[in-house]
Amino acid sequence: MTRLVVLAGPTAVGKGTLVRALRERNPDIWLSVSATTRSPRPGEVDGEHYHFVSDDEFSRMIERGDLLEWATVHGTHRYGTPRAAVEENLAAGVPSLLEIDLQGARQVRAAMPEALYVFVEPPSMDELVRRLVGRGTEDDLERERRLRTAEVEMAASKEFDVIIINDDLDTAVSQLEALVLKPGKPRGNRG
């Protein structure tokens, strides 16, 4: 039986890199494409990386119940998961993955408690800071905001079914791959 796997973790922990590597190994795993009100970063494609929508359209999506979850992230932009695509892929038996933030994972848990919730941690906070600075996509103010959010998110790791420490990409991908492709729901697995 196919289950939804919900992947969350702090900013710059490498969730996107982990998911890209997983899908290179397993292109049939479906990854939800979130809607967002933020502007595209260089190289991002609408409909592939995110559905980039206006604030007004995002509000209409909320009002219509089109989103499985949504949140304002880092106090600035809204992100959400389109509900219909998740439900369609699960009904079709397609291994399905959401890569979302902590707030979103909590909302999905309320709507879909049968999903498997996986938290990605950095090997250390120093490494998280290095990764955030190294990607160079945020200014100093945004970096500081994201680091404050990351500290809060790290404290919530105990809410998840499984923790993956992203210190070695191949190992982390293999751990995630096993969770997405295996039926059942492990409990208490801490990595």
Q: How does this structure look, described?
A:
The chain has 191 residues and is of the alpha/beta class. It has a single domain (4-181), classed as Rossmann fold (3-Layer(aba) Sandwich). 42% of the residues lie in helices and 20% in strands. It has seven helices and nine strands, in the order E-H-E-E-E-H-E-E-H-E-H-E-H-H-E-H. It has helices at residues 15-25, 55-64, 83-91, 102-111, 125-135, 140-155, 169-181, and strands at 4-8, 30-31, 35-36, 51-52, 67-73, 77-82, 96-99, 116-121, 162-165. A hairpin with a 3-residue loop joins strand 5 (67-73) and strand 6. The radius of gyration is 16 Å and the shape is globular. The two termini are 23 Å apart.
Key features?
191 residues; alpha/beta; Rossmann fold; five-stranded parallel beta sheet; four-stranded mixed beta sheet; 7 helices; 20% strand; disordered C terminus
Kindly identify the CATH topology. Rossmann fold
Question: What is the helix/strand order?
Answer: EHEEEHEEHEHEHHEH
Topology, number of strands: 9
Structural class: alpha/beta
Shape from CA axes? globular
Largest sheet: 5 strands, parallel
Tell me, what is the CATH class? Alpha Beta
| CATH architecture type | 3-Layer(aba) Sandwich
In CATH, the homologous superfamily goes by the name: P-loop containing nucleotide triphosphate hydrolases
